[in-house]
């Protein structure tokens, strides 16, 4: 298992750095109603496809939002799916072995290293990898190498934070975001590394005060839906729908709406 995770952490990691301004993807949301029904890909839903059983990482905000995005995509394909939350390592094991039919959202590098999972080519979502610190802490980050100056904590099985901490000397792993933010709040770790959306969600859920994000974001990267190779026939069906929604701007609008609803309901 150690070799398996080592291989994943040596995946090609995007080096693009971005200035993290806010969660808005395309400005004002507008009214989705009629537009939501407009992206239809005719004659793609095939008899005999599905139902499919997918997994997602439990306890992560962008994964919960991704589940709703994915269900909308498969609804348009007239294919029934279910999504089961699991810890990150277990989710990957279940999906890669074929015990489940795929993963809701994962980074690009997964498809380079886990050959049994087929990446749907068009990105379904994206995430920013961000560090969170205690307010008032004299901590600044320009590149990922600056993480070497601090004690860091990440959630086990989350590939984007495993990748960003490759080569970083002081990294501890915990089972869930709540444990991660409690360590930072208690002063037992300097930085909690997670996605921006998940960080905001965790802070609200825990009602933790005095925690803030460190700007700029360490990385911004797309997230893709993955299907087990035994179900690869569905990939072009799903990709055509995602691409149509992305090209029209509908996917970004829906994602922003779902993110805001997620945070409002905490």
From TrEMBL:
Organism name: Roseobacter cerasinus
Protein known as: ABC transporter substrate-binding protein
């Amino acid at each position: 298992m150690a070799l398996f995770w080592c291989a994943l952490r040596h995946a090609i990691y995007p080096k693009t750095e971005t200035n993290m301004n806010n969660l808005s993807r395309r400005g004002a949301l507008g009214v989705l109603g009629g537009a939501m029904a407009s992206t239809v890909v005719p004659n793609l839903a095939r008899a005999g496809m599905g139902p499919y059983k997918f997994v997602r990482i439990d306890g992560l905000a962008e994964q919960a939002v991704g589940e709703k995005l994915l269900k909308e995509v498969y609804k348009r394909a007239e294919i029934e799916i279910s999504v089961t939350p699991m810890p990150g390592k277990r989710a990957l094991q279940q999906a890669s072995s074929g015990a489940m039919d795929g993963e809701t959202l994962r980074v690009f590098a997964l498809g380079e290293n886990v050959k049994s999972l087929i990446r749907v080519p068009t990105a379904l979502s994206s995430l920013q990898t961000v560090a969170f610190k205690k307010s008032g802490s004299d901590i600044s980050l320009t590149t990922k190498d600056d993480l070497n100056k601090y004690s860091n904590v990440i959630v086990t099985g989350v590939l984007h934070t495993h990748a960003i901490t490759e080569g970083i000397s002081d990294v501890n792993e915990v089972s869930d975001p709540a444990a991660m933010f409690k360590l930072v709040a208690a002063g037992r770790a300097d930085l909690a590394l997670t996605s921006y959306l998940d960080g905001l969600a965790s802070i609200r859920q825990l009602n933790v005060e005095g925690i803030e994000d460190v700007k700029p974001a360490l990385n911004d990267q797309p997230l893709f839906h993955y299907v087990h190779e035994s179900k690869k026939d569905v990939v072009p069906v799903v990709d055509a729908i995602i691409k149509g929604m992305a090209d029209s701007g509908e996917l970004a609008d829906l994602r922003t709406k779902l993110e805001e609803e997620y945070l409002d309901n905490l």
